[in-house]
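User: I'm putting together notes for a lab meeting next week and I want to include a structural view of one of the chains we've been expressing. I don't have a solved structure, so I'd like a prediction I can at least talk through. The sequence is below, exactly as it appears in our construct file.
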Amino acid sequence: MKKPDTKYLRIKGNTYQLQYPVKKGLESHPLCWGKKLYIKSLETDDLRTAKIRRDLIVREFELYLEDSKSASFRAQVEQLREINRQFIQDNPDFGDDRYGYTLLYEEVERDAKNRGIKLNDRGQLPDNLPDDLQLRLDALQHAQRQESKPETTLLPPTKYQESLRDIEKRTVKLKRQLGKREKTLGKYSRSVDAFLDYLGVKDIPIALIRRKQVVEFSNAMQVQYAGSTVHNFLSFLSEIWKTARDLELLEGDNPFQEQKVKEDKKSYLPWTEDQLKKLYELLPEEDRLPFKIGVYTGARIDEIITLQPEDIQEVKTDDGKVTCLHLKARGNGKTKNATRLVPVHRALVDDLKEFEPFEVTSGNYSKRFGRVKRKYLGEDDTRRLCFHSIRHTLATALHRAGIDELVISYITGHANQGRTEAARTYIHGPMMRQMQEALEKLPVIV
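Assistant: Thanks for the context. Below is the predicted structure for the 446-residue chain, given as structure tokens.
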């Protein structure tokens, strides 16, 4: 009979407890300072649950040893504190702990001076130091604060704490170990991308995420996406936050939980031609081209905003060339069919001649578009009419023009997954020409 896996597990009363030996390199971890054995109640009497919680914590320590920025920072803090303690021990006559730190400050200033960096008007180092010098300076200041208040445990500066993307990667690794499918794991990344795009940042310390930000994010996404999609975003972000809490990296209420998301009781409505013309006129000049591209391609806003000059491509066909836009799927949440080539409508040719990347995120553009839309339509029933409705407008127009369903599916990125290799080749030949002819049947609206 196979012996049950109880490594690091002990029973105390009726509750499982984790007893994990602190390995070399973990001494700087805030959970392990001054300990040789990390002990934590797993708050369960079920062995299976205890093993899952044990694996999460042990894996966190392993990841911490592998790639944690905080480990580097705290290691420097401890090194600087030890240098100071040794200096005071060797020089008792000075009698001032800060003197040792003064020498260390002078070392940082000297290294900065050797690199041509001058002190500011107040005689201090400037804010825009190279990363290595800034790390030393922050660690020095933090070590000095800890030395003056040894009875308290202070967190390192915010930028050295775990970020949302850090915890996303850890969550995905842990979920993969638990057997989650790759398709599901990809949704964590897509959810984080959507949240950070909305905030307009590349990353954010997870401890700085506030409920107000999440409420505004949820409301903005409900303008752009179906309620089920927004619910998935919040669900996966909530899981990431729970991982950070389980690892004792933060505490408090989960800001991604208990958000109000409207149910998808009504489907999207297509815009009319007159409505599209009016919206185009109301949009500010810098927001018109993304809207126009959407009208003639049916592309999603995130596919449009991420376009680059190299995405305007010439595709060879049997009877010449077709100018196309290379529209790319965002994250792992979309199928491979969402990445596609769509012929350029004649109304877009002049606009794309000297195309430059858009200087706005899809989240910010959606908010700006939403404000214009509500000003035009009023506040009543605008949920069914949004930027995504433009896709329905294009598909409806092509249907009414008698375009084959397969051609429409290639244009919108909804083609069947099971198409053959012959069909994939066919799209660059006769199908590409068919797509171009289909789109040219659309009238010039804006």
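A couple of points you could mention at the meeting. The beta strands are 9-12, 15-21, 37-41, 312-317, 320-327, 340-343. The first strand starts at residue 9 and ends at 12.

User: Perfect, that's what I needed.
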